[in-house]
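Q: I have 242 residues here and want to know how they pack in 3D. Can you give me a structure?
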Amino acid sequence: MQLSGFNNLKKALSFSFYDFVIAVNEEERLSYVDYINTNYSAERISELLKKIVHIIEAEILSVSLQDYEPYGASSMILLGDIKGSGVDMHLDKSHITAHTYPDFENENGILSFRVDIELSTCGEITPLNSLNAIFDFFDTDIVTIDYVVRGFTRNKKGEHVYMDHPLNSISEYIDAEILKSYRCKDLILNNDNIWQLKMLRTDMHTDAYFAPNTLLSDAQKGAYMENLNAEMLSIFNGWRTL
């Protein structure tokens, strides 16, 4: 598509990743808290964001990160010019942020950890190219991805252009092997340049949600897994639980 001047379409990609475990006592709960604080600290989250910046070939202008007490972390990176295909492509007013939201106090023993990432770009690049790298970084049970394109640019004839690349579904940018593990639900509003993809893990392996040395019987594990499935369906479908 031949455009007139700078492509100033704003492309905003946001996604939430949920991870679940089952802790049947305080020792197991604290072990999961320690695991999350170690593996998803602000520094580790920043490493992922820098990897995404590399994928979209952008320049890092500044990095800000913060760990919170007793748990949780945030990171933000401001982006500069993209250099791709031998041509400098302007990319200002762009950023990527990540925030973590642990839920370690559930009395039924189901603990969860959510990471929200937002990537906003202006220009030719689409942030959707970063999705597979993010899936490689997180072990996730539920995913919600939103993609919105706003503003307009102009073509050589001076006509408004509101979308500069074809898109039927966000799933087109996710590896087929990853998609096999999930039930997917699409929301597609092409006329409004809004897309959403919700993903619910279907290849659940019971033992992966319990401590390796658990003494629970298969029947007890089954009861916990029923509660876990109900919790995950509530989040996936947006149901309220009383």
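Q: Anything worth noting?
A: Helices lie at 26-39, 42-55, 131-137, 176-179, 218-237. The domain at 10-237 is CATH 3.60.90.10 (S-adenosylmethionine decarboxylase).
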